[in-house]
Amino acid sequence: MLLCVPAAEVGRHIGQGRKRHSCACSQAAPKYQAMLPQGDRMHAIDELGALILNGGASTRMGADKGGLDWWGRSALQRCRSTTAAVGADPILVVGPGGEVEDPQLGPVGGVLAGAAALRALGIHRALILAVDAPTIEVKDLVPLLSAGDPGAAFEGLHLPMVIALDALAEDAQCGWPLARLAERAGLRRLAPAPEARERLRGANTPVERERLLQAPAAPDAAWERRPR
Questions:
Q1: What is the pTM (predicted TM-score) of this model?
Q2: If you write DSSP's letter for every residue of 91-113 in order, what string do you get?
Q3: pLDDT over 70 at 35, yes or no
Q4: Coil, strand, or helix at residue 125?
Q5: Total count of domains within the chain
Q6: CATH of residue 186
Q7: Residue 194 belongs to a domain
Q8: Residue 38 domain-assigned?
Q9: How far apart are the first and last CA of the chain?
């Protein structure tokens, strides 16, 4: 049994039984699934859920990171669009205004709470990313999605990760660092494309955010489908 997971609260925000959260952005998923190697497509998207970590005090940023504007959309909106575009369903936000309460016990506490919620919905594989990195593009996630079980993360970065939830250590605790959680789960460490590293890392301070905003606007899966 995973420690620190508020199991009694799992149904409080997501309801009872299996709920599928449809999103118009998911119509774009086949386009991006075509990026995957042929033999990996069905494995990568079958029963894939997503967790967006939106907790923390945002002390270094000085503002709610989920609500910050990135090229005309909030960080949380962009993260939702990206996860929907790869076919993840359901997409659960862990934190204020989300489907899962943040236990306020660090990022691993958020992962464990979200994992319990996904399991309650019958999902056993998850894409996990933080609202810190709304700059992530779908193509950046392809190596993780095609890595196979138990999952993968990038070298030198804690998130994003793709993980088989059954691989989470049974004695995992909220106080663990994310690196320990990934190591105990046996996640592969992949080298990110050099041009993707800053997008994957995201921003925790205003200076980091301003630097990323100087780059061309990252593609937005939801906006790409708008009539021209």
A1: 0.80
A2: EEEESTTSSB---SSHHHHHHHH
A3: no
A4: strand
A5: 1
A6: 3.90.550.10
A7: yes
A8: yes
A9: 51
Task: Encode pLDDT of 15-31 as tens digits.
Answer: 433 333 333 333 334 44
The average confidence (pLDDT) of the chain is 80
**Residue 223 in tokens:** 């906006």
Domain that holds residue 74: 21-215
pLDDT, residue 34, reads 53
Amino acid at 174: C
- Is there a domain that residue 8 lies in? no
Using a 10 angstrom Cβ sphere, with 0-12 exposed, 13-18 middle and 19 or more buried, the burial of residue 34 is: exposed
- For 114, phi then psi, to 5°, come to -65, -40
12 lies in some domain? no
Total count of residues recorded for the chain: 228
pLDDT above 70: residue 4: no
pLDDT at 223 over 70: no
Q: Which residues on neighbouring strands pair with residue 70, listed in sequence order? A: 73
DSSP H or E stretch at residue 33: helix 29-33
131 within 8 A of 91, measured Cβ to Cβ: no
